[in-house]
Amino acid sequence: MTSAPPTIEIIAVGTELLTPHYQDTNSLFITQRLNDLGLSVRFKSIVGDGAEDLESCVQTALKRSDWIFTTGGLGPTEDDRTREAVAAALGRELIFCPDILHGIESLFNKMGVPMSSSNRKQAYIIQDAEILANKNGTAPGLWVTEKEQRIILLPGPPRELEPMFAASVWPRIQTERSFYQAHKVLKMVGTGESSVESLISDLHPHDPRLNLTMLSSPGQIEIHLTARSDHNENEAKELVEELAENLQMRLQPYLFSTAGEELEEVVGRSLLQKHMSLAVAESCTGGLLGHRITQVPGSSRYFLGGVQAYSNQLKIELLRVPEQQIIQYGAVSAEVAQSMAAGIRNLAHANYGLGITGIAGPDGGTPEKPVGLVYIALESDHGSVCERSVFPGNRDGIKRRASQKALDILRKQLSSSSREDAERLDG
Ligand code: ATP
Ligand code: MG
Known about the structure:
With 427 residues, this protein is α/β, with parallel strands linked by helices. Helix content is 40%, strand content 24%. It has 13 helices and 17 strands. The protein has helices spanning 26-36, 51-64, 82-90, 98-111, 158-176, 193-200, 233-251, 263-273, 288-294, 312-317, 323-329, 334-348, 395-426, and strands at residues 8-13, 43-47, 67-71, 94-96, 124-126, 130-132, 141-146, 149-154, 180-189, 210-217, 220-229, 255-257, 278-282, 303-308, 352-358, 373-380, 383-390. The strands form 4 sheets. Strands 2-1-3-8-7-6 form a 6-stranded mixed sheet, sandwiched between helices. Helix 1 links the parallel strand 1 and strand 2 (43-47). Helix 8 runs parallel beside helix 13. The N and C termini lie far apart (59 Å). Residues 12-14, 16-17, 24-26, 71-75, 80, 137, 139, 155-158 line the site of adenosine-5'-triphosphate.
């Protein structure tokens, strides 16, 4: 066994994938599953159904890659040519396989429809290829071994490809890879990339078996850690855990997950554990916060609902924001955010009420109240909190950052009330 990782390439086949109407999601699925095993993809291409293009694409892949995955073009129609192209590139024959034909015939019998003569084509396999059963369609997948190289042909429809990959491809790759890998993601909120970097600058690993990558998206920083071992999985896990622990100690105030969850899941779980409920009043986020909270299955157990109170009138009439406050401080102000939070909390009879008001832009900013200015308030039995932020970015980014900040304010409140409870119990 060599410890060098294989060069991996994916070829997504289909002329429709070269139009703006269809997306190649199969390669993302395959990449994700390979990454889970600690394997990275080096090359990826999308090629139309034309025989010559397809063959030259496969030939290029054979020159540079150890493992090649193709998706699509295994069907019965004239434009399904992946089998032919791979066979031609390898200089192998296509062999008729009666067992496959019987399988396809019995599938059609079961459905009570006559088999089209074009399906016969699917019973041809590349010489010496192994067949990967397709439980959800007629096209079998193929696993071709050419010396040290592997070419794996998978069907196009995701509902056929994904179960086939899980049943016949993943387990095999898992045993064939020559090393072990462990992976961990630390997710943070309420800080920026450069602040995180300065906190952990001396912890970047020098050990070649370890890798640390920092990724940022609006309102969130992630540190992805991977460790590799040539010996066993435990060694990789221990390496990654040791590094993660050191990082966690530095990043504690910002860290919300080490298990891959989203912020809304973490906050939701905490509300559920405390038997607490939440309602939200959103202006500039336009429902994004409510949407994120309700993306979590089971959120109805703690989320009572929300309103998008865009107009002053709705803020006044529904949320009971005093009109005088809007006149005196403006709709984008700490006072109004607090009244919105209190208003929705009362209206919904919730333990926690969040209120958001701000200027998402691109228009509407002034020197005193620039685009990106957002007030976020939280009302609860623990009192009231309001934070002022000026977020950078475009409309989408500002909305995302504001929803993130709102969840973070709630997260901090929930964890400080847990600490208070613990102290009370101790004392
Ligand atoms: P079939 O037997 O259905 O013809 P096939 O293996 O020949 O299967 P294609 O004809 O290439 O596959 O694609 C069938 C359908 O599968 C496409 O219309 C598309 O909806 C979906 N599909 C194909 N390739 C991809 C891809 N890379 N990502 C996501 N979906 C895909
Ligand atoms: Mg097809």
